[in-house]
Amino acid sequence: MAKKGYSIERKQAKWGLVFTIPCLIFFAVFSFYPIINALFTSLTNRRAISRTSDFVGFENYVYIFTKDNGGFPLSNSIRATLIFTVGTFIPMIIASLIIATFLMQLRKDKYRGFFQLMYYTPAVLSSVVAASIWMIMFDPRGLVNQLSNFVMRTSGVDYNWLVDSTMLQISTMMIYFWKYIGYFVILFITGLASIPNTIYEAATVDGSSRWHTFWKITLPLLKPTTAMVSIMAMLQCLKTFSTQYMLYQGGSSRFPIDVITMNIYFTGIRNGRLGRASAMSIVLFLIMLLFTYIQLRLTRSSEDVEY
Amino acid sequence: MNKFVGKVSIVEVLIWVLLIAVLLFTVTPIVFMIVASFMDAKQILAMPFSWIPSREYFTTADRTFFTNFQKAIMGNNDNPTFFRNLFNSLVVAITDSFTTIFLASLCGYGLAKFKFKGRNLIFLAIMSTMMIPFEAIMIPLYMVVSGMKMINTYRGLIIPFMVSAFGVFQMRQYLLTFPSEYIDAARVDGLSEPGIYARIVVPNSKPVIATLGILSFRNQWDNLLWPLLVAQSETMKTIPQYITKFSEEKMTDEGAMMACAFLASIPMFILFFTLSRYFLGGAAVYDSRKG
Amino acid sequence: MIRVRAKILISLFILILLSSCGEKDVSIKLEYWTHEDQVRQQLEERLISEFEQENPGIDVVRVEYESSELLDIIKNAFQAGSGPDLFNLPSEEISTLLGSGFLDEIDIEAIGYESEVDLFSEYISGAFDTVSTEEAVFGLPLECTNWCLYVNTRLLDEAGIDPYSLHTWEDIAEASEHLAVRDNGILKRRGFDFRYPYYLSFFIPMVRQLGGDIISPDGKVAVYNEEAWENALSFMMEWGPYGRNLGSPTYINARNLFNSEEIAMCLSGLYQESRMATQNNAFFTSDDWMVLPFPVFDEAVNEEAAGYYYHYFMVNANSPDDTRKAAWKLAAYFSEHAEEYLDEIGLIMPLQRIFESEALHNKPFAEVFLSDFSRSHQIYHGPNASELQDLIGEAVESVMLSSVQPEKAVQAMKSSIEELFSQ
Q1: What is the CATH number of domain C148-307+383-422?
Q2: Which has fewest Cβ within 10 Å: A168, B5, B37, C234?
């Protein structure tokens, strides 16, 4: 009998591997190999279109933290990335949680479906389309500036949405927020939907108010979802590229919105300093790892499913 | 409506106000795109902006209601690649969403429901790839793909995005909550492991599969940087490339640009609205549990 | 049922995945990458099909990229061991490729000349400087372009401005003030605007007018004559949204708006005329426009016009022998049709015979371009040229858009440039 149990476990293990190996091979070739390649490159002075490169140890890392990388230092990129991430993902998590909770309060599923659909629509547009729409709307003559004048009760003021360094950063956050809010609402709704209704019914029987139910029951039960959604949102924000890139292409200045990925792109692809760009990539990778770790720590609770 | 007034609480009114405000925020730019695609640059940047394309404008001889769309499709020359590029985008996005569903559900199932050595390590390794920004590995990745002779092919566009770590993560999280008893019961019934996957796991993961498929579709539909490197011939380019190409030289023509953006979004809209039933699967689960 | 269908679908897609792209049986397949230019495309597609007829067995694929991305894509492709066989790049983007081993030495025989001397004598002097090292020549010129001031005289008339009174940058700023259409602080239509982000072509000449330069005459100091830089930057600051609000890089290209008469003045090359003719022929054939020399500062110490730049055909050194030969042959074939490039798209190939031709001198306002040409320099094309352009751009944009003081911007730029050259 003991032997049989053992073989079932063996069989289980075998099938587990069979199911995971296709993905693992895929990631090995298209993710692990390139990142290991980047790690090695970061220790060399390799430049695009030159055939030889020398091992330089940690010189690139020292460089990116001490020098200004041709006017676009990594420190500025870290600042830009963090501001963008904090300014986008915190409002996004809060807003999408609130919206999702409100949507669940709607009496008719039809309405809920409609709102969900409409909120998600921007996400189906490609970033290129999104950026072209917003760039026209951010024009001093465009819709957003007209609305700003209306709201601020001014007339003929140019709010410099694409010019002023603060406004420019707000613009990128707005585009991003617009594009992804529906996506995160849906993730929260999926989370909310997985909370068994019996719990709510029990709470109603107990006579809890809606507010009380939300704080004492919904929110704690939503913890795993919140953890997942916020990690996703944060990682996405840290990796942001196309919005900033499109605005830069549209003539806005690079410095205020020079997020790390954009700096990697310019340093590595445009200026061909692959060693240095790889070092930046590794730094970004570590930052993302660190943030994920912190978040997992913060949101972890004892009865959670294993991570 | 009157008989409902009594039932509507202030909270409910506030909820509706907020939901509608958000609705206006998300939908206005899209409506703007559609309206602007019938206008010329002067109207698009007119102050104050009028939401209805003015009629007198179309009475000029060289413009019709569809001038912008004509320009968007014909491009700069009489060699329109619009439809071909649209087709390419569709092929890439559809294929990748199918492969993502297949590979991610397989892997997610393996990670969630089987115990084996190194499982957590594999999971962590896959999760860590989520933290790799694409820009960071673009060049090594390009070398891999070009080494496999996949430049300017569908394979080159498709294969690097066949599955995403996020997909695996989502599937695993979903399947963790899936009752193991069903699976064990199936085993007792003598179903093979692949059979359990195909007949028990997949059919019961429809909502998450639908979400995953659409997310993956959207990601590829959105992808610009990779096609820029890999798809070099006109016939292999994708729609985002077509639009950027379009905006470069003709930035003056915001109308045509918006028309192009609109046209390029139509397949996505159609797909999205027809599949929305599956897509709102999260809510469906909620409904079934309510009932 | 659904599952069966899904299976069929999945296997279909796997089939698509596995099916390889069939390759045609052509002895030489030549890939030519170039930047976008709608009028040039029509001409070159025609020339290519003629070339293919004359040279059966050569199949040319012409691919267009956004001009701002062409170099990046070529570099990446080279890095990964692929890339075009024939391509073209502008002056400021060539230094990164020179000496990389990826550029093929010019094939004198394939382009139909007897010797380098023979080749050089056909072209204007200095035409090969950018693509030459001490050992070899790596490119064949496609075009040589300088920019002058295009003026919409109708709009100027309406504002009561005499175009012939516009000589200095101060005149331009003053005229733009009158030509601008505003709604309080919102600029609805500009009078003139610069041609961002090509700072090497228009901004460096402005600095030089004031006595400054990128590198000092003795070659030792970067950002030579800081005061001149500061003054030029102050002018840009005044120009920008926080100064007199006359223009900014965030608006649409002035040269594109010019054709539809939505801006009164812009900087562009002779090729603008062909684009006007295709986009707004009524305007092109009217008397409502003219071309003026590149403006000069009131207090200029040098009479410097806009910098001129070349585009060069170059060949990938890693392509097979016969492909490279065919690539040079095609480049030479394009050059043989220099007259059509001039006629149809207004591009000047720097051949002696073109500069002396009637056709060039008969082009409207060609004399303005030619006389400006004689008082201008080629844009900076030495090491790190495109990075340098980015740094200058950052300085200009920081004073215009972020209100950084010109002194500070110059210092920041200087230290960045020095660091760039020290590597």
Answers
A1: 3.40.190.10
A2: B5
